[in-house]
Amino acid sequence: MSNDQTKPMTQELNESDSAPSSRKVVKFLTATALGVTLLFLSGLTLTGTVVALVMATPVMVLFSPILVPSGIVIFLVITGFFFSGGFGVAAITALLWIYNYVKGKQPRGADLLDYARNMVRSVTEKAKEYGQYVQVQHKAGKDAQVKAKHLQQLN
């Protein structure tokens, strides 16, 4: 049993009513002061942002015929660079994977590619067999029709 469970209930109540330690008080005051300071700085930042927006709005309205199209162009150029870079990285990665696969180093996913190749090969073989079967059946059916017509003509 722990030491807390052996204490009488009245003793626990008396201990919880006692004044907090000085360390807890200092921690609380430090946290409170830090929180108030950060809240004040947050308010200052918000106020500065609103003032800057109010002051910049007339300038933005005056220059909007220039700024909006240039902003769109800049956005499209940056987006194009990111996409071209991403596609370049993807192409290099794909070429590196193919190189490693051809060299026999078994890159990640090579076993799935081999499995898919075997499945495709199996399906094509089955399709060829079925095609040959259908051709034989068709030829046999055609021969039977020719014989039947020939017999009808003889009768």
Approximately how much helix is present in the residues?
over 70%
What is the structural class? mainly alpha
Number of separate helices = 4
User: Poorly predicted ranges (pLDDT <50, ≥5 residues)?
Assistant: none
Spell out the helices and strands N to C. Answer: HHHH
**Kindly state the mean pLDDT as a whole number?**
84
Strand content: under 5%
Largest sheet: none
Shape: elongated
**Distance from first to last alpha carbon:** 112 Å
Integer tally of domains: 2
Query: Tally of extended strands?
Result: 0
What value does the Rg take, in angstroms? 42 Å
Please give the oligomerization state of what you see: single chain
Topology:
Layout: H1 3-6, H2 9-17, H3 22-103, H4 110-154
Please, could you describe this protein's structure?
The chain is mainly α. The protein has 2 domains: 17-108, no CATH class; 109-155. 90% of the residues lie in helices and 0% in strands. It contains 4 helices and no strands. The model has no long low-confidence stretch (mean pLDDT 84). Pfam families: Oleosin. Keywords: Lipid droplet, Membrane, Transmembrane, Transmembrane helix. It is found in: Lipid droplet; Membrane.
